[in-house]
Amino acid sequence: MSAERIEEFLGAVKSAFAGNTLIKLKLGGYHGGEADLKSIDVKKIVAKGAEKFSFTFHYKTRDIIKNHIQPEALALLRSALKDEFRSAQLATTAFDMSFERNGDKVRLKRTEVAGRDSVSTEHNRAKNRPLAATDKPYLHALGITGKDGQIRNDAQDKFRQINKMVEIFAPLIQAIKADKPRIVDMGAGKGYLDFALYDYLANVANRSAEIVGVEMRDKLVADGNATAAGSGFDGLSFEPGTILNYDATGADAVIALHACDTATDDAIYKGIAAGASLIAVAPCCHKQIRRQMEAGKPVTQLDVLLRHGIFLERQAEMVTDTLRALLLELSGYRTKVFEFVSDAHTPKNNLIVAEKDGRVGRDRDAILKQIADTKAMFGIEQHYLEGLLGL
Ligand SMILES: C[S@@+](CC[C@H](N)C(=O)[O-])C[C@H]1O[C@@H](n2cnc3c(N)ncnc32)[C@H](O)[C@@H]1O
Q1: CA 311 – ligand 1 centroid, Å
Q2: d(Cα 89, Cα 93) in Å, to the nearest integer?
Q3: Which single residue of 7, 105, 123, 253 could bond 183 by disulfide (Cβ 3.0 to 4.6 Å)?
Q4: Residue ranges covered by each domain of the chain
C-alpha cells in the first residue's frame, strides 16, 4: 500500500515536471544515516538545453546542489520517500500534494489551487504570459501602458494580474459548449477582465465570444464602450444599470469580480435564473452575513474564534461563501472555491467557480440541512441569496 502511494506521489511530481507546473518539492523529517542532513528542496532547471531536477541538500551548516536527469531523480526520490524522509510537500501551479509517512502507512493529501505563476526555468516569464503584446489601445486607455507602448512601472502588477485572470478564465470559457458563448460580467468597473479576456479569446485563442460588462456607473460604461470601439472589439460592450435589473437571459457565463457585498449574490442569482453554464464570482465585503453573525451571537464552542474583529471578518467571509457554494449546489452546479489572485494584489482573493451539470450533486434534503445547520451555528437568519432564490 505504501509503495502504491509513493508511486502516486512520484506520478504527480513527474507530470508537474513534464507539464512545467512544478513550483517546488520539499522533503523533510529526515531520519536516515547521513549526519546533519535536514531536508532536500527540488526544482526544475534547464541546463545546457536539458531539463533536469535540481536537488538542494540542506545540511546543518551548508547546502549541496546536485542535478539529475529524470530517471535518476525519480529513483533517488523513491528511495528517500521509502526509507529516509517522513514528509514531502509538492507545490504546483494547479495543486499542492502532501506526503506523510508513519512507519509503513502513507497519507497523501491533494489540494487544488489556482492563480499561481509557473516558475520560469529560463528567465523568460514574460514570454509565457497569455497577453504578451503591449501595443494595444485598451492597455493604454486603462493606464497600463505609457505613451511608448511599454508597461508602466507602476502598472506591472496590474498587467500581471490581468494575465492571471485570463489564465484562469479562458479555459473555463473555452469549456463552454456554445459556438459563441455570451459572457456577462456583472459590476464590470473599468472592464480590465473584459478587455483582456476578449483580446485573448479573439486574437490568441481564435475563439468567438460576446462579452457584456454591466455597470451602474455611467461614466465607466461610456469609457468602456469608447475603448472597445477604438480597439475594434465588436463583440465587447458595456451596458448601464444595476445587476438585478439586467436581463441576463441567454448568458452562458455570468462573472462578477469584487462586486460589492450582496451585488455578488445578485450576480449569482442572475446566473442561476439564466441557466448559465458557468458562474464565477470573486466576492468582496461580506457585510450582510457579518451583521447577522454579530447580532445573532450564538453561544458555540467557536465563540473564542470570533472575539477579534479580524477573525470575525474572516469567519463571515468563509460562512457567506460556503453558503453561496451550497446554494449553487442546490441549484444544480458543481462548485469549487480557490485562491484567485495572490493576496499581494488584494486580500479579496477567493473565487467561487460553479459549473452547471443539471443535477443536484447530493441529496437535496441533505444540502438544505447543511445550510440550516450552518446558519444556526453562526446565528444567521437568512442569507440574502436565499431570499433571491425564494427559499
Ligand atoms: C470593486 S469594483 C470591481 C470592478 C471590476 N469587476 C474589477 O474587478 O476590476 C465593483 C464595481 O461594481 C459596480 N457595482 C457594484 N454594485 C453594482 C450593482 N448592483 N449593479 C451594477 N454595478 C455594480 C461598482 O460601480 C464598481 O464599478
Answers
A1: 26
A2: 13
A3: 253
A4: 2-112, 133-388
